[in-house]
Design brief:
Largest sheet: 7 strands, mixed
Strand content: 35-45%
Distance between the termini: 39 Å
Strand order of the largest sheet: 13-10-32-55-54-53-52
Helix content: 10-25%
Number of helices: 8
Shape: globular
Radius of gyration: 30 Å
Length: about 800
């Protein structure tokens, strides 16, 4: 299923179980066709099939897919987008699902189409009878994604966790002490999608009584205590499970998923790309275009034009640097970004004249500089410990230096580098402000668009210091659901641990790696969306940007792939990013100049399957897994050249690719023990959910492989995915139901259950104690007590 906006831009894509691999691309084409021509695509298929009229012209149109299953979305008489469905049991079924999706956006349309379940009525006698013993009033049939219970409780209950259902509770009579969150003690699976434990530790206690309503999200422990008899309450249980886990297609699930996906796409776009961090309204502002505000920070604006000058340089050399023959080029003067640059002889300008047009028109540049001293107070706001952002809007572009530095990384949107045409540059200048702290700001102004040879001049539209007492980074925060199997877990997971959601709305998140703090840049996280063929960058201030597009494949047949993009990411000892590319079926390293070096793409002249996860050994050797999950038809794909799924090693000098083992059907996550004596690799195989442990030989090969841990009998549909290890040798494994924590001795200490199932992780932040979780459509993190092993 695909949803596009009125311009044909893809807003949401959901691939269902049982659909063929090319279905995603076809569904997008159907949606775009419905929007382009403002008609259901059935019209065009029937037109072409009936008489051939229009065949030659229409089939030559770009993005034109004249197949049944595309429906325009109409709201208040306006076409605002389209829905396309492909791969159902028939073309008619494609169209029915597309209509249901489109109707989700049209008030009243769902009822008219017959997709809404019938109204249910229960007379008083039936309700009273249900409450007398506690019974189900509505069982979720007729395509409903909810159930209604008439519940009766006469004594305290066990701790419960519903992994798929959210509960909406309305108290009808009586009262009870109700505990939510925290950790369920000795939790065990007692029914599908349900766990029960003896009690809850570190939860939040409430006294609930007649008329109260409480909503318990799926995955959150809850328990009734100190119940007055009788305690009567309605429970509406809402099914929150992912659509792609369903084996049947219900009209309600199609329309609901599409509606939510589209609305979330718009929400995330607004939250993550419009404003740079810190997000939200500041607690105090110093207007640097106001005389009294500039006096408050003891500042003085200074100005200077920039000149273009002749300069000597060298042509590009074999190293792709200016190391070739001498040539002539151009440069600018003065270089005024340095913190200690002497601008005392520059023109001093009054803050109230920042909007005066300056420089020389056409292709021109200039400098603005100001040194600010942090005051103790801004109005009634105490500045100590606050986060401060410098925001400036220049007509037309700006680059910003702070204390002589202008950090930049690939894909960076704004901040110190150009944000956009007349767009605000926001740079965090301190996260722990101290009164009296002095900060030097230098702004390089650029007239534009440059290729237009503009007739305008350069001027400052606004310049402010924005103060934030405690800027928020996370989108949401929920108590971590902890299934505690052993007291040793308490040394790892802190009491009251919370899971923070940092970003969402992705197709599928994978392969995270934390890039540590450098002299000029703060640490940040990189992670893949293999379905969307992208690598994203997330900063500790909450900014999300595209680090690398077409991260795994650029082939003409990309529409056939479910996951054409990059998967696992890691860093070598020099800090160079190493990437597993699904579609390209290779492992590459990104050099400091942005060039890609192929480390492995074949073994014995046969192409690799689709490299999945990877890890470096301390001697510089690279180890990676190679299942076929990046190929469109997995194990049955005709492109597959190797008869097995292997674990491989690339020698430290990059000259040799070795096959280490073919023991597993779907080798996936991998990691070394802290002393590198052992090598762990797990298996994405629903019939054999195991972790293997091998001894590492002196030449880097593996031997004496044994099953270290077996989860085959564990409840849950997921097999095993990512693996990480902390400095004490404890394993963190993506397994059935959540994040499994397993001691170095092979003992299951406990499981962390989050809002979405985590598939891969990375240790991050300066101390290495934050575990970042790539979990289906979202990015999350949790603080732990033991630092992890990082590249």
């Amino acid at each position: 299923m695909a949803v596009v906006d009125d311009g044909g831009n893809l807003m949401a894509l959901e691939r269902l179980d049982g659909t063929f691999s090319a279905g995603a691309n076809i569904s997008i084409g159907k949606a775009r066709t419905a929007v382009m021509f403002k008609k259901p695509t059935r019209f065009f298929e029937e037109l072409i099939n009936s008489s051939g009229k229009g065949r030659t012209v229409m089939t030559a149109l770009e993005n034109f897919t004249p197949l049944i299953g595309g429906i325009p979305i109409t709201v208040d008489g306006q076409i605002v987008g389209g829905v396309g469905v492909s791969g159902a049991a028939s073309a008619d079924q494609d169209e029915k699902l597309a209509i249901a999706g489109a109707n989700a956006f049209t008030p009243g349309a769902s009822a008219a189409s017959g997709s809404t379940p019938p109204v249910s009525y229960f007379e008083k006698s039936k309700v009273d009878d249900a409450f007398s013993k506690g019974a189900i009033l509505l069982d979720g049939s007729d395509g409903r994604n909810y159930m209604v219970h008439a519940s009766r409780r006469e004594k305290p209950g066990q701790a419960e966790i519903h992994t798929k259902d959210a509960d909406v509770i309305y108290v009808l009579e009586g009262s009870a002490k109700f505990i939510t969150g925290g950790e369920a003690v000795d939790a065990k699976t007692t029914a599908p999608d349900e766990l029960r434990g003896t009690s809850i530790r570190n939860g939040e206690t409430r006294q609930i009584a007649k008329g109260d309503v409480i909503v318990v999200p799926n995955g959150v422990p809850h328990q009734f205590l100190e119940v007055t008899n009788p305690f009567l309450y309605y429970v509406v249980k809402v099914d929150k499970r992912d659509m792609n886990m369903k084996k049947q297609w219900h009209v309600w699930s199609a329309s609901t998923t599409l509606a939510l996906a589209l609305s979330l796409s718009f929400v995330r776009a607004a939250a993550q790309t419009i404003q740079d961090p810190p997000f939200g309204r500041p607690d105090a502002v110093v207007d640097l275009a106001a005389r009294d505000s500039v006096q408050l920070v003891k500042g003085q604006w200074r100005y200077h034009d920039v000149k273009i000058v002749d300069a000597d340089s060298r042509a590009v050399g074999p190293d792709l640097k200016p190391s070739g023959d001498p040539i002539k080029t151009y440069d600018y003067a003065p270089y005024a970004g340095a913190a200690d640059f002497d601008d005392s002889q520059w023109e001093g300008i009054d803050a109230t004249t920042l909007d005066q047009r300056r420089s020389t028109a056409k292709v021109c540049f200039n400098w603005y500089r100001i040194s600010v001293t942090i005051p103790g107070k801004v109005g009634n706001f105490e500045t100590a410990g606050s986060t401060i952002a410098f925001e400036i809007v220049i007509d037309d572009y700006a680059e910003v230096w702070v204390n002589g530095k202008m950090p930049r990384v690939l894909g960076q949107p704004g901040g110190p580098v150009i944000k956009g045409f007349n767009a605000p540059n926001r740079v965090i200048i301190t996260r722990n402000a101290q009164p009296g702290q002095r900060i030097q700001l230098a702004v390089f102004g650029i007239n534009g668009p440059i290729s237009y040879s503009p007739q305008n001049f350069i001027w400052i539209k606004s310049a402010t210091l924005d103060f934030y007492k405690a800027p928020k980074v996370a989108i949401s925060e929920t108590p971590a659901t902890i299934i505690r199997k052993d007291p040793a877990l308490d040394e790892i997971v802190p009491a009251g641990a919370k899971i923070e959601k940092l970003a969402g709305g992705f197709l599928f998140t994978e392969g995270p790696i934390w890039v540590p703090r450098m002299e000029d840049t703060d640490g940040y996280l990189l992670f893949s969306d293999p379905n969307n063929n992208l690598i994203y960058r997330w900063t500790q201030d909450g900014q999300l940007s595209i680090f690398l597009t077409k991260s795994g494949y650029r082939g003409m047949d990309i529409g056939e792939y479910g996951q054409p993009g990059s998967n696992g990411l890691t860093l070598d000892k020099q800090g160079r990013l190493t990437i597993n590319q699904h579609g390209n079926r290779r492992v590459v390293r990104m050099e400091k100049n942005g060039q890609l070096t192929i480390l492995a793409d074949r073994y014995e002249e046969r192409r690799l399957n689709s490299p999945n996860d990877l890890v470096y050994k301390s001697d510089g050797a690279l180890y990676f897994t190679d299942p076929p999950f990046g190929l469109p038809k997995f194990f049955d794909d005709p492109r597959k050249e190797l008869p097995y799924s292997g674990v491989f090693r690339v020698s430290p000098d990059g000259k040799q690719v070795q096959l280490l083992t073919t023991d597993l059907k779907g080798p996936n996550g991998l990691a070394f023990s802290p002393d590198e004596k052992y090598f762990y690799v797990d298996d994405w195989d629903t019939e054999k959910k195991i972790i293997m442990r091998y001894e590492v030989n002196s030449d880097g090969t593996l031997s004496n492989g044994k099953i270290f841990f077996d989860m085959t009998s564990a409840e849950g549909e997921d097999a095993l995915d990512g693996v990480k290890i902390d400095q004490k040798g404890t394993l963190y494994v993506s397994g059935p139901g959540g994040l499994w924590i397993i001691s170095a001795e092979g003992k299951h200490l406990g499981t962390i259950v989050g809002p979405e199932h985590p598939h891969n992780f990375a240790w991050g932040d300066d101390d290495g104690k934050t575990l970042y979780l790539c979990a289906k459509t979202g990015l999350y993190r949790i603080r732990l007590n033991i630092p992890g092993i990082r590249p």
